[in-house]
Amino acid sequence: MKNILNVLCVFISIFVFSQTQSVKKIPTKKGSKTAVKKATAAHKPAADLVMINKDLPLLIPKKKGDQFGYVNQNGKFIIQPEYHIAVFFYEDCNLLNSPNEKARKFGTKEYATVEKNMISYRVDQSGKRVYQFKEADFGKCKFEEYKQQLFQAYILNGFYGIIEKSKFVNAADYRQYQIYPQYQYLFILEGDDVANPMIVASNNDKFGVIDVNNKIIIPFEYSNIKRNFSWKLGKMFEVTKDGSNYYYIDSNNKTY
Fold it and tell me: How confident is the model over 184-238, as pLDDT tens digits?
């Protein structure tokens, strides 16, 4: 099984840094004035970065129309939607290990990666674009020790269940299953707590989320739930009811 952080690094590389040409410099005077103006205005409503749920990010990516911005935990747009891509505020290991010392600070979790007009930036919590990605600044990610996953999906007679790998030896003994096979589909999401992972499940052609004790965390009411890193990065799930419009919910099924 691949290193979690290795997969994350590949995901971010594909999802965010997929430009096929060199990035252009940000426009000079006119662009600079706009950026300064944004920063000044955005610092005023710092109180809008409210914390209602300590487990969630202060700023959450949200799509409006065809563009992404960021809302606070009350659902208010703090960074207006103008980006083609917007990911959670999280570390970027390529920048953290950049050969350019000045670029390293932009790799911390205080910044998020966005993309507009095929150019990728890091923005701060005020929405100011503080760094434009340059391939020459990419460093080599340093990986932490891999956390061995305790559980895995198991298929029996066409149905999915969950087993604890170290204890499972006899498929005929129902007592050895953590969750006896009963679902159309199961997928264990990447996360930091390997003893209590979140599991995307499908039942009666609808998707929900369960834990390893078969407790329903998110009810089975969605046409799809993405199997991506939203749980690992933001403790949230990216869901849709119509198969096309995706949005984030937390573990209480609250929409953002």
Answer: 999 999 998 999 999 999 999 999 999 999 999 999 999 999 999 999 999 999 9
Instruction: Give 27's DSSP letter.
Output: P
Please list, in sequence order, all residues whose beta carbon lies within 8 angstroms of the beta carbon of residue 171, skipping any fewer than 6 positions away. Answer: 154, 156
Give how far Cα 234 sits from Cα of 28, 58, 86, 238, Å.
35, 10, 13, 10
How many C-beta atoms lie closer than 10 Å to residue 15's C-beta?
Answer: 14
CA distances from 67 to 81, 206, 239 (A): 5, 27, 17
Q: Which two tokens stand for residue 237?
A: 């799930």
pTM of the model: 0.78
In which residue are the tokens 């700023």 written? 59
Structure tokens at 81: 């939607």
End-to-end CA distance of the chain: 33
